[in-house]
Design brief:
two-stranded antiparallel ribbon; mainly alpha; 220 residues
Amino acid sequence: MNLPNSITLSRIATVPILIWVLSPHFPVNGPNGEQELIASGLFIAASITDGLDGYLARRRGQITTLGMLLDPLADKLMVATALILLVAYTPDVMKPWIAVLVVGREFLVSGLRAIASSEGFTIEASDLGKLKTVTQIVAVVAAILSHRWDHWQMGWYPFPVRLTAIIAVYWMTIVSIISAADYFIGFWNKVDHASGRRRRRTILSRRKRNQEQSGAEQKV
């Protein structure tokens, strides 16, 4: 087990811990928001490993089939777990339809990538996809913190924690929809080009066979 895959597995192991931390049975649940701060820190740390394992795998030349399987699985598990938990934890911020839409988007993109791989090409992560990841982190952390705080008093300025969470959640939803459409367009274009190449190869192959048959008939 190389280092990048170990980091990916640690992200998967974070999922049950996050469930426990955001449960009513978590023992550290004081008036100062300890539970929310621990959950936020845990999710941020897991999100950092999302980029770290891929970077190390490329840098160390340790890209493996197992890593390519586990990395997207870990991402989907973390996102789906966090959003489902937040539907119950902060229902006024994380609406069920938003969680369903964002999780559905994750599985849609995974399906498109699987089909693309079977067709012999890849769909690279776009800038919109990277922006979606950042907005997810901000939305999830802000939603967790909004469970305890409506705002933070920073000197004379009351920083609106709950309002920030609501804006981040809806912004995450919008970016998720747009990035899904971007992935689908990129997928469709590559599939169309691949189909065109296959059609051209088929036509050329038929022409070659016809020419060979014509040459054979002339010799006879």
